[in-house]
Amino acid sequence: MVSNLINILRERAEAAGFREPNGGKLQLSNDENWPEAALENQLLYCYSDFASILVVDISSDTPAEALKLAKRSETYLDAALLQREQNSSVIDGYLVLAMTKFDDSFRRFIIQIEKDTRFVRKHVVFHGENGWERYQRITPLGLVNSPSEAQLTEFIPDCIESSELLESLSKQGSTQLARIHGQEWNLNE
Known about the structure:
Blueprint: H1 2-15, E1 42-47, E2 51-57, H2 63-85, E3 92-99, H3 107-115, E4 121-128, E5 131-133, H4 160-184
Parallel strand pairs: 2-3, 3-4
Antiparallel strand pairs: 1-2, 4-5
């Protein structure tokens, strides 16, 4: 089950230009911000020039237990970011909390933890009825379509909507047409 999530995230991370260290895990050693052993619930770590993503298993029976694991994982990722920032500019951190045990009692936990942007941005993914859910919301990976998710849209010349779109593009140009359509949509949904 978790291996499926790791494969999905690995594919999206690679498409977004992220790399993995050997073994796919973050190893902190001799760090004053993390003097303990490596984080035991770590599933995957990947990084780019501007960001680090740490995926951890947060399979807990209660939201309170999940919060403790999340805070511990957050501290671990923050220590890694501080280490990386010694040699470069600011590095964004993304903590992905993977939950294999999920029920309605965790909904409030998700809202609470994702609103907390202290140290790093947090995202919760969970295994639901249709497999892993919410992984598209992981900020640096959300706009990336893996090749298996990409769908080609076929232009059908006889379609009225397609013809109208082409006509509007030729008359108004792409920038003006985008402004018009942007005013029609509520982008804060």
